[in-house]
Amino acid sequence: xxxxxxxxxxxxxxxxxxxxxxxxxxxxxxxxxxxxxxxxxxxxxxxxxxxxxxxxxxxxxxxxxxxxxxxxxxxxxxxxxxxxxxxxxxxxxxxxxxxxxxxxxxxxxxxxxxxxxxxxxxxxxxxxxxxxxxxxxxxxxxxxxxxxxxxxxxxxxxxxxxxxxxxxxxxxxxxxxxxxxxxxxxxxxxxxxxxxxxxxxxxxxxxxxxxxxxxxxxxxxxxxxxxxxxxxxxxxxxxxxxxxxxxxxxxxxxxxxxxxxxxxxxxxxxxxxxxxxxxxxxxxxxxxxxxxxxxxxxxxxxxxxxxxxxx
Length: 311
Hints:
mainly alpha; 2 domains; three-stranded antiparallel sheet; two-stranded antiparallel ribbon; 9% strand; globular; SPK_dom
């Protein structure tokens, strides 16, 4: 067996132990990013994603998984059911249903657990947290577009004015999320993100001022790395509507982190910013305000239970 196949199987086992209780379609690309970090995969995350996807497409050959676990993996990652697995399910008299693309949209286990979902690209979860809202349009009205738009140098927003740069003290190798969400609130207001998002940030600030929720720097760096790469993947050469210059945004976030934290605390975050800037090179990419808002919401939901519960 090839080393690549061993790596993909190791990644699938790593992932499955963490999704085995989930009942919604998860984001496989983000899980591949996370698994790459945790299992020490040396190649780019997209290579691991492709390897995992190929293994799932021929899941009948995957060793060490029960029929129920294989069905659950296909359901969770929206992979079409192979003929071989369909025959096994039919032989065992399983109750299941497929959509038009042969993906499992409904099945029940022997224990009576029901799994049911509609597979769409616009609605995915990561670690059990919903990534994308149904919010598909920007709430920024015509009067505020010039404030938020960064399409050229004349409208370049100075994000140094958005972020405070006071050093945030470490607490037992953890970050105080109240301080971070204060920055998110200011950022959202400056970019005129949706009223719903700004309200959520304000609520989180109030609640966290009383709870002092913290997150280990290692967890912060891992989640930041996954979410930032997701942002760069979703950037465009041309964006219609309010957007930011991605390269300048990354550099200014990096500058903020460097000034506000000890370098070692944010080593992972700083390294991924450097890597993504090197990949972009001279290419100009844009990220829409709406997309950025969705990505920040997803990241904060993973980092903070308080944020996830604020609606």
